[in-house]
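Lab meeting minutes (informal)
Scribe: AK
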Amino acid sequence: MQRNDVKKKKKKKKKKKKKKKKKKKKKKKKKKKKKKKKKKKKKEEEEEEEEEEEEEEEEEEEEEEEEEEEEEEEEEEEEEEEEEEEEEEEEGGV
């Protein structure tokens, strides 16, 4: 009887140890998965942030180009007006 009891205890202890090991492994796997997910999320956020920055830069460049075009148009208009005034003066002088 005693021998049987010892065997049962050993078996129970072994089973408990195996269960504990399995639980630990599962926990470790879950932790690793969570870490991987967090890393992926962080990477996606960084990519998103980069995209937003790029879009902002593009918008700024477009605005600058538009301003330059407007300035050029204004300069052209001023030059045309000056030419017209000179022509009128020449015609009036003749």
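Next up, CB showed the second protein from the same session:
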Amino acid sequence: MSRRILLIEDEADIRTLVRHYLVQEHYEVLEASNGTDGLAA
């Protein structure tokens, strides 16, 4: 079973750092830069 997480963060550098960590932990990461985009994901 795939572990998926929605990462919503407006700071691109922080989003990249967190995504990198989550991918290393075998998560499938969906990203959004704001809540509206996150709800659309």
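CB comment: The chain has a mean pLDDT of 96.
No objections, moving on.
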